Amino acid sequence: MELAPELSDETITGADLQSERIESVQYARVTFIDVDFTDATVLACTFTDCTFRRCEFAGSTHRNSAYLGCQFTGCGFFAASYDGCKLTGSRIKSSRLRQVKVRSGAWDFMTLHNVTLDGCSLRDVRMTESDLTGLKARGVQLRDVDLTSAVLADADLREADLRGSIVYSIDPAETLLGGAIVTAQQAIVLAANLGLDVRAD
Description:
By secondary structure, this protein is mainly β. Helix content is 5%, strand content 31%. It folds into two domains: 101 residues, Pectate Lyase C-like; 90 residues, Pectate Lyase C-like, CATH 2.160.20.80.
């Protein structure tokens, strides 16, 4: 199936887009239901206020694309990759992200309530003011991630690699951090967040 270059206020159901190259499309308020994006390549596309229900993104590649204010419900993301993408204001729920790779991009103001990140890697990603309540990210690579003003209550970051990330918003009293990898400077920040009086001497 070939997608139209521009579309708004429509519903696409059951489309097979496996291995398709989707480039420079502009979609607004489009609902995708049971659409198969397996191994698709999405380049320089913009989806605004779109809804994705039970869609499959396994093995898909997304580059320099934007998903602004979108809703993802019950979707599969196994081994998907995002490079330089913007997901500002989007919400992912009832979905599991397995072995997803994210390289650079803006994921600000996102909502990932109780989402599981399994074997994922996020590097150089901005997640300022995102709601990550209950996020399950044990052992995940979160390198150089901007977590400024992010909400991480009840999140599980045990054994996660947090080096280079901004961790001022992480409260060790509310977030599981056992075995997490941090730098000495980050350790000082986290200790201060616990209420310790950290001094050089």
